[in-house]
Design a protein that fits this description.
- The structure is a single chain.
- This protein is α+β, with helices and mostly antiparallel strands and 200 residues long.
- The chain has a single domain, classed as Gcn5-related N-acetyltransferase (GNAT) (Aminopeptidase), CATH 3.40.630.
- The chain has 5 helices and 7 strands, in the order αβααβββαβαββ.
- Strands 1-2-3-4-5-7-6 form a 7-stranded mixed β-sheet.
- Helix 2 (46-56) packs across helix 3 and helix 4 crosses helix 5.
- The structure holds coenzyme A (COA).
- Coenzyme A is lined by residues 56, 58-59, 108-110, 115-121, 143, 147-150, 152-153, 156.
């Protein structure tokens, strides 16, 4: 008798979507437009993630292949925001192999027209709620010193979760082969959500 085929990627994706769905599908306090749907990325979203990163003119634009691959292999630690069926923002991350209690946020970006409406924060809260169920209690990311919007975003998420946020220099400009700015390491912990109100 042959065993049924089990698609583990589909199971992971469905777990993410359930966790995200538990948050509700609309943004909170700052909602000013159409509903924002939060869900796990699919391979077909990779092109859109690449476009959003490129249009941001702030993020390093990785190859389109990197985003497509990410949507396949790291969907469980990534979230996209969709408005009227179009992906308008994303956060991509991974669990650090050396620190299984830590999610590293590699990139987060929101389309310019969607910025300032709470979508970036909603993406991070969704990610933290999802990985929290897998035992993750810390978030790491790196931010260049001139990125005020990103510093404000992570600071806001830390505050809403009543977590500590610390900053240390990580990558000096000298480690990069090009004109890349230095990157500071931000650590937010503990990331467990205390109440539903923390999302507002
Ligand atoms: C950073 C980014 C993702 C924020 O997304 P967003 O949807 O506009 O953020 P939100 O509306 O959820 O705002 C979250 C918090 O950050 C603050 N914030 C957002 N943009 C800000 C800005 N330009 N200046 C100051 N504060 C800002 C908001 O006031 C809010 O704080 P509050 O909750 O205390 O009021 C978005 O600006 C972006 O895509 N930037 C380009 C890419 C980038 O820099 N990514 C991060 C690289 S590490």
């Amino acid at each position: 008798m042959s065993l049924p085929t089990v698609n583990t990627a589909e199971i992971e994706r469905s777990r993410v979507e359930q966790a995200v769905a538990a948050l509700g599908t609309t943004t909170g306090r700052k909602e000013t437009g159409p509903a924002v749907v939060l869900r796990a990325p699919r391979v077909g979203d990779g092109a859109q993630l690449w476009r959003i990163a490129k249009d941001s003119a702030v993020l390093d634009t990785n190859s389109s292949y990197a985003y497509v691959l990410w949507c396949r292999d790291f969907a469980a630690t990534s979230v996209v925001a969709e408005v009227r069926g179009r992906v308008v923002g994303f956060v991509i991350g991974y669990i650090r192999p050396q620190a299984p209690d830590t999610v590293f946020v590699w990139q987060i970006a929101v389309d310019r027209v969607q910025q300032g409406k709470g979508t970036g924060a909603q993406l991070l809260h969704a990610l933290l709620d999802n990985v929290g169920a897998q035992g993750v209690s810390k978030l790491e990311t790196t931010i260049s010193p001139d990125n005020a919007a990103s510093i404000a975003l992570f600071g806001s998420v830390a505050r809403r979760r009543a977590a500590r946020i610390t900053k240390h220099p990580l990558f000096d400009a000298g480690v990069f082969p090009d004109s890349h700015a230095p990157e500071d390491l931000y650590l937010i912990a503990p990331t467990a959500r205390t109440t539903q109100e923390d999302h507002r």
